[in-house]
């Protein structure tokens, strides 16, 4: 089992390097945006990227999940059909929806409360969506074929180009917020060019109808599930816009993006986890292995959560080229970041829970569970934002991910029961609560300083070692440390 966990860790690390490096490079744009654009302008960008996140689900309509599930089957000799059929169907749908979105840009812009002079940006949005949909399945093909290095290289190049063109268009050519979308479109097109040899090698112009039906049967339920998840991720933006203003939205989303560090961890884990559990599910000790994965994921995620929460206000004030990571106009929203980090931790936990539904091909449950999360999110936003403002919006995100995690747990346990290490996981969250309680007590008393933060971090790690990590795991870590040194 240790070897299997090492394999998952290794693959997570490979995907993680590209994800972390790429996202960190992309994160460097936040200081650029928050120091150059007004919060109201950044609020418009946020609204349009919320549209991209939502429409991306429509453009792909669950075909990415279906291809991930069935793309590695080897029960026939039509190897190209396994890629060609979903790829061609995605391209056709993406082009149709891209043209439709462009033609309806005025209506869409009005619905999003975007000033009319920015309606033209929706054309760029449509281009980005079409290109990203076209490259989604080739990227999944690289994951299925375990070509992690190529996957990582292409992702990093995409983000580097995005950053470079942002810098050129904004700083040198003095473009406005349209530079953000033009840069994104150029970077997305570059990914298509890089993936073109993979596409040509794997495609022939023919659609296998029987296989397409199988893909749609699994993938279409993912469509409403994906929409529900997007509602969880983006509903706070339009609701906050209607209840407050673009300035508040800009402050909220700039700080929301600081949750990127937990999102990075979840994303790099998910890249490795999905192919891993599909391949390991037939092994005799698969369920025991998956149980351990949840424990270790929660353990590492808790360390990220506490570390960032303790030192966040120190991190964002670090100056790069004489400017802070986050402009001072946005610092009033820093208090929401620990809430967002915890929400993303539950996001990762539900990704682990839903493995059983992939394995048993029970995708029909996805829309109901994620739909529950969407309802919780919208209701909590409407109720909490008028009371607590951006803190209420952050709590709504946390409650939604918690509801989805609980939903996936109970449904999956009915079809693919796993005995998780409940007491260990409970002790991790109890430890988080204790450290959080001490932190807020010191903060409210005005005693919190950098020394106390380091002491709290040390206390947290000691509590994990004493109460969570057992002797076998400690001995294994010792051996690995001694071996590496």
Q: Would you mind describing this structure in some detail?
A:
It contains 22 helices and two strands. It is mainly α. It has one domain.
Largest sheet: 2 strands, antiparallel
Uncertain ranges: 480-485
SSE succession:
HHHHHHHHHHHHHHHEEHHHHHHH
In helices, the fraction of residues equals over 70%
Strand order of the largest sheet: 1-2
Provide the domain count.
1
Rg measurement, Å? 23 Å
How far is the first residue's CA from the last residue's CA? 24 Å
Q: Report the total helices.
A: 22
SS elements, strand count: 2
Structural class: mainly alpha
Inertia-based shape = globular
**What is the beta-strand fraction?**
under 5%
The overall average pLDDT, rounded, is 85
Question: Which oligomeric state applies?
Answer: single chain
Short account of what is shown:
This protein has helices spanning 2-27, 29-36, 39-60, 63-70, 81-103, 105-111, 121-144, 148-172, 178-202, 209-219, 222-234, 236-243, 246-256, 260-280, 286-316, 337-353, 355-359, 366-388, 390-415, 422-445, 450-467, 471-484, and strands spanning 319-320, 323-324.
List the helices and strands and how they pair.
Layout: H1 2-27, H2 29-36, H3 39-60, H4 63-70, H5 81-103, H6 105-111, H7 121-144, H8 148-172, H9 178-202, H10 209-219, H11 222-234, H12 236-243, H13 246-256, H14 260-280, H15 286-316, E1 319-320, E2 323-324, H16 337-353, H17 355-359, H18 366-388, H19 390-415, H20 422-445, H21 450-467, H22 471-484
Antiparallel strand pairs: 1-2
């Amino acid at each position: 089992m240790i070897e299997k966990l090492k394999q998952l860790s290794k693959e997570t690390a490979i995907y993680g390097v590209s994800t972390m490096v790429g996202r960190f490079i992309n994160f460097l744009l936040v200081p650029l945006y928050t120091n150059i654009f007004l919060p109201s302008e950044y609020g418009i960008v946020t609204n349009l990227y919320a549209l991209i996140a939502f429409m991306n689900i429509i453009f792909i309509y669950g075909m990415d999940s279906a291809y991930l599930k069935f793309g590695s089957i080897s029960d026939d000799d039509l190897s190209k059909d396994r890629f060609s059929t979903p790829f061609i169907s995605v391209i056709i749908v993406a082009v149709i929806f891209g043209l439709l979105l462009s033609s309806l840009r005025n209506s869409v812009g009005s619905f999003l409360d975007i000033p009319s002079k920015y309606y033209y940006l929706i054309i760029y949005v449509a281009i980005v969506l079409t290109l990203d949909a076209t490259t989604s399945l080739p990227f999944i093909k690289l994951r299925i074929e375990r070509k992690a290095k190529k996957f990582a290289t292409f992702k990093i190049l995409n983000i580097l180009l995005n950053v470079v063109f942002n810098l050129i268009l904004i700083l040198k050519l003095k473009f406005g917020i349209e530079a953000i979308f033009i840069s994104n479109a150029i970077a997305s097109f570059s990914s298509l060019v890089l993936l073109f040899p993979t596409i040509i090698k794997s495609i022939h112009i023919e659609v296998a109808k029987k296989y397409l039906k199988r893909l749609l049967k699994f993938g279409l339920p993912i469509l409403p599930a994906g929409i529900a998840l997007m509602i969880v991720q983006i509903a706070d933006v339009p609701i906050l816009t209607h209840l407050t203003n673009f300035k508040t939205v800009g402050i909220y989303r700039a700080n929301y993006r600081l949750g990127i560090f937990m999102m990075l961890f979840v994303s790099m884990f998910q890249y490795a986890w999905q192919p891993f559990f599909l391949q390991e599910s037939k092994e005799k000790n698969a369920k025991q292995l998956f149980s351990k994965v949840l424990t270790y994921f929660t353990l590492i995620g808790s360390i990220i959560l506490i570390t960032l929460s303790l030192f966040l206000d120190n991190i964002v004030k670090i100056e790069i080229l004489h400017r802070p990571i986050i402009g001072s106009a946005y610092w009033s929203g820093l208090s929401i970041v620990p809430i967002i980090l915890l929400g993303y931790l539950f996001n990762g936990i539900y990704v682990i829970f839903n493995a059983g539904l992939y394995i048993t091909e029970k995708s029909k449950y996805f829309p109901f569970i994620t739909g529950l999360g969407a309802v919780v999110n919208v209701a909590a936003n409407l109720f909490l934002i008028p009371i607590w403002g951006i803190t209420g919006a952050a709590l709504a995100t946390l409650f939604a991910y918690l509801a989805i995690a609980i939903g996936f747990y109970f449904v999956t346990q009915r079809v693919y029961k796993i005995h998780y290490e409940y007491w260990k996981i409970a002790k991790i969250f109890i430890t988080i609560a204790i450290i959080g309680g001490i932190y807020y007590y010191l903060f409210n008393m005005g005693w919190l300083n950098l020394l106390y933060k380091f002491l709290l971090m040390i206390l947290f790690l000691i509590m994990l070692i004493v109460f969570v990590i057992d002797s076998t795991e400690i001995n294994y870590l010792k051996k690995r440390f001694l071996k590496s040194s």
